[in-house]
């Protein structure tokens, strides 16, 4: 008769499901950040081809928002791309992407002046940097002769809270956005528009940031092939095949014993 005690050897089997591994199991340590990560992941698959990336402004989202996604403390507002708080964009070399900028172009009012630039600068705030700091940054688009280009600025479209209930009082950031945020745009509207086509010279990681202020934007991953995003090798699930077989054998043995 078989017994579970005899099942001492296990064999690991790997199943390739052709996607990137995801930590879907909830833990006490990561529950409070899961919503922010989900917001970032929402636009992770391929930000290009047909749909343009539209940049606007909105609240930084409390402890589940910008701070949870980046590990940095914002100053109250942040960029939204296609309505999503600072998503990590993924662009493929050789493809051309359209960027629409509606983040504020009022030079006289710093609270409504947020030109965008693409660079290797993770913090942003190019206007606040000295010559030494600027020399360390590879500006890819948006700044010429130290000033923002017109195509990287546009009139302000802003997500504004319609109630006094803050984001940390909601179960998730998305619940806060759905219940409280509404978009308002300055009229007449003038959108900035530029095209960006990553090349072989474009670094693997760049950032979209605000010219005037620090910590409004986030990360852009530049890949050669979508397999780099999808994970190629996929995810491996570990199973104890021998143990499974032993359980089946014990079950059959018990059935046979009861029958006899």
Descriptive account of the structure:
The protein is globular and about 45 Å long. The protein is of the alpha+beta class and 260 residues long. It contains 6 helices and 16 strands. A 5-stranded mixed beta sheet has the order 4-3-2-6-13, with no helix packed on it. A 5-stranded mixed beta sheet has the order 5-15-14-7-8, with no helix packed on it. The longest helix is centred in the C-terminal third of the chain and has 19 residues, at 241-259. Residues 2-45 and 232-248 have low confidence and may be disordered. The chain has a single domain (42-229), classed as Immunoglobulin-like (Sandwich). The protein starts with 11 loop residues before the first strand and ends with a helix. The protein has helices spanning 31-41, 66-70, 131-135, 173-180, 227-230, 241-259; strands at residues 12-13, 53-59, 77-81, 84-85, 89-92, 97-101, 116-119, 139-141, 143-144, 147-148, 157-161, 181-185, 192-196, 205-210, 218-223, 239-240. Helix content is 20%, strand content 25%.
């Amino acid at each position: 008769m078989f017994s579970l005690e005899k099942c001492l050897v296990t064999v690991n089997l790997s199943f390739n499901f052709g996607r990137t591994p995801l930590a879907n199991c909830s833990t006490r340590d990561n529950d409070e950040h899961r919503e922010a990560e989900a917001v970032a992941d929402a636009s992770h698959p391929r930000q290009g081809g047909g749909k343009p990336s539209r940049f606007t402004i909105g609240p930084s989202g409390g402890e589940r928002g910008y701070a949870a996604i980046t590990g940095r403390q914002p100053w109250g507002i942040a960029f939204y791309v296609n309505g999503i708080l600072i998503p990590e964009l993924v662009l493929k070399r050789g493809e051309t992407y359209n960027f629409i900028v509606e983040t504020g172009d009022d030079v006289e009012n710093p609270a409504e002046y947020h030109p965008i630039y693409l660079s290797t600068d993770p913090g942003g705030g190019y206007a606040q940097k000295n010559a030494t700091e600027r020399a360390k940054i590879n500006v890819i688009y948006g700044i010429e002769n130290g000033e923002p280009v017109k195509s990287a600025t546009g009139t302000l479209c802003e997500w504004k809270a319609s109630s006094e209930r803050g984001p940390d009082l909601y179960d998730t950031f998305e619940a806060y956005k759905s219940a409280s945020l509404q978009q308002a745009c300055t009229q007449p509207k003038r959108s900035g528009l530029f095209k960006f086509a990553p090349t072989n010279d474009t670094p693997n990681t760049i950032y979209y940031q605000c010219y005037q202020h620090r910590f409004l934007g986030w990360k852009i991953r530049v890949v050669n092939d979508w397999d780099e995003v999808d994970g190629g090798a996929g995810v491996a699930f570990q199973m104890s095949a021998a143990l499974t077989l032993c359980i089946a054998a014990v079950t059959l043995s018990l059935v046979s014993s009861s029958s006899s």
